[in-house]
Design brief:
Oligomer: single chain
Number of domains: 1
Strand content: 35-45%
Distance between the termini: 21 Å
Structural class: alpha+beta
CATH architecture: Sandwich
CATH superfamily: Jelly Rolls
CATH topology: Jelly Rolls
Shape: globular
Radius of gyration: 16 Å
Number of strands: 9
Number of helices: 3
Length: 185
């Protein structure tokens, strides 16, 4: 896992992406930028930085910051306890983001998942998002996304987040997150 100075540098890089995108982040919000490496310790390849602006029982609004080529791994927001699962709208603020979903495979996709994890990516229909573009992913739908050549700042507007409801295709991520969830209980 990334620690110390490297962690601070990665947070600074994410905050710089936010500033490039024109999103004002208050000084007190900088320390709340969450760096998620999905338990793999490979943040620059597989991970994303997140700044939550709203997180209630009904809605969540966050800014996701992706470094160039950084990938949020394939997952779905599955139904749990009578909740149909998180529906999520992605809206690109800055840069480019390549969103992958079920559908006809894109012949020459721009996104390339990390080589050693490629076997855990199964959906290949790519939707390119540039500033102002948005796409809504229904709940319980496999998806993954990657920052473009300059990175990306992408809004996520979604129904409530349920801890433990995200199901990842990569078994190493599932195991790491299950362990983190158990430790947090």
């Amino acid at each position: 896992m990334t620690t110390g100075r490297a962690l601070a540098d990665l947070r600074d890089a994410a905050v710089d992406l936010s500033r490039k995108s024109g999103i004002a982040i208050l000084p007190e919000e900088v320390s709340s930028v969450y760096l998620n490496d999905f338990g793999l310790g490979e943040f620059e390849e597989t991970g994303l930085a997140v700044l939550r602006f709203v997180d209630t029982q009904l809605v969540s609004v966050k800014l996701m910051l992706l470094l160039p080529g950084q990938t949020c791994p394939e997952h779905r927001h599955r139904p749990v306890e009578g909740y149909p699962g998180k529906e999520e709208t992605f809206r690109c603020q800055w840069g480019e983001c390549y969103l992958h979903l079920p559908g006809p495979p894109t012949p020459d996709p721009k996104a390339v998942p990390p080589a050693r994890r490629r076997d855990h990516y199964t959906v290949w229909h790519e939707i390119g998002l540039r500033p102002g573009d948005q796409y809504t992913s229904p709940s319980d739908t496999l998806h993954w996304f990657q920052g473009g050549p300059e990175g990306a700042a992408v809004w996520s507007f979604c129904s409530r987040v349920v801890v433990g409801a995200d199901e990842f295709t990569d078994p190493q991520i599932r195991a790491a997150l299950a362990s983190r969830y158990q430790e947090a209980r």
